[in-house]
Amino acid sequence: MSGEIEFRSDVTVELVRAQATDRDVLFAARVSTVGEQSLDSATGDTAELAKRDRGLINYLMRDRHGTPFEHNSLTFYVQAPLFVFREFQRHRMASYNEESGRYRELRPVFYVPAAERNLRQEGRPGKYEFFPGSAEQVDLVQTEVRTQSEAAYASYQRMLDAGVAREVARTVLPLNIYSSMYVTMNARSLMNFLSLRRKAEGSTFPSFPQREIEMCAEKMEDLWSQHMPVTAEVFQANGRVAP
User: Fold this and answer.
1) Phi, psi of 102 (to 5 degrees)
2) Which of 16, 52, 105, 228 is surrounded by the most beta carbons within 10 Å?
3) Under 8 Å CB-to-CB from 160, ≥6 apart: which residues?
4) 102 is in an annotated binding site
5) Pick from 196, 191, 223: which is nearest to 11 by CA?
6) Is 36 annotated as a binding residue?
7) What does each C-alpha distance from 120 to 130, 133, 137, 141 come to in angstroms?
C-alpha cells in the first residue's frame, strides 16, 4: 500500500491570490456617472473610505445593483472530500481546476465525520432538521467509514500494482476521499455562494447547507472579509442577500 491511510474531519481553505478591495466596487460603480474620473476611487487605503463611499457600497448592496461587485478576483485553494466538490460545482459562476485521478495516484486521505457532527435527519423534504447522533451511532459511523475506506484503497492499490490504469483503478474509491482544487470567483459570485452555503444569523432567506461545504464557506468568508471588509459588512447588514 502506498503510504499510510490518513483520516481527517476538517477542510483546508487558503486564499492564494486576491485582487479584491472595497475600492474596486467604487470605481466600477462610479464609471456610470463620472466616466474615467472614477479611477480616482481605485487608489487609497480601505480604512480611509469616506462616509459617502461606505454609503454607496451599502446602497448598491441594498438595492441589488450587482455588477460593481464583479470587478475583482479571488482564488482559493481547497482540500475537501470529493462529495463537497460536487456541491461546489453546482455553482457555475466560478472557475474550477481540480487534481486529476487520471494523471496522479490519489493519496490515501479520507474524511470521517467528527463525533460532534449531527448524524440524524428528521422531517420532510425542504423541512429537514439535523440532530446529534447517539454514542452508538457515532461509533458505527466512525467504524464503517474507516473500514470501507481502508478496503477501497487496498483494492485501488492492488489494481495499480497489477498495471491497471489510474483512471480505471480509481472507480473503486469512495466519495469521502480528499481532493484538491483551485476556485476562482468574484465577490458577487462569492456572496451568492455564501448566501446558500452558510446557515448564518441575520439571513433574509435562511439556508440549510450540508455541514462539510459550510465548513469551506466559513473559511472562505473569513478570508474574503479581510480584503473587502466594508462589502462583507454591508452584505451581512442587508440580510446576506447577494446583489
Assistant:
1) -85, -30
2) 228
3) 2, 105, 166, 169
4) yes
5) 223
6) no
7) 5, 6, 9, 11
pLDDT in tens, 219-229: 999 999 999 99
Q: What is the pLDDT of residues 50-81, one digit of tens each?
A: 888 999 999 999 999 999 999 999 999 999 99
Angle, CA of 190, 63 and 185, to the nearest 5°? 15
DSSP state, 208? -
* Residue 93 CA from chain centroid, whole number: 13
Q: Grid cell 420532510 — which residue?
A: 124
Model confidence at 48: pLDDT above 80:
no
Check the annotation: does 71 bind a ligand. Answer: no
| Global pTM value | 0.92
Catalytic residues: 197
Lookup result for grid cell 484503497: 153
Burial of 83 (0-12, 13-18, 19+ CB in 10 A): middle
Q: What is the pLDDT of residues 163-197, one digit of tens each?
A: 999 999 999 999 999 999 999 999 999 999 999 99
DSSP state of 2: -
Q: Which CATH architecture has domain 6-20+72-237?
A: 2-Layer Sandwich (3.30)
Q: For residues 207-226, b (16+ Cβ closer than 10 Å) or e, as one string?
A: eebeebbbbbbbbbbebbee
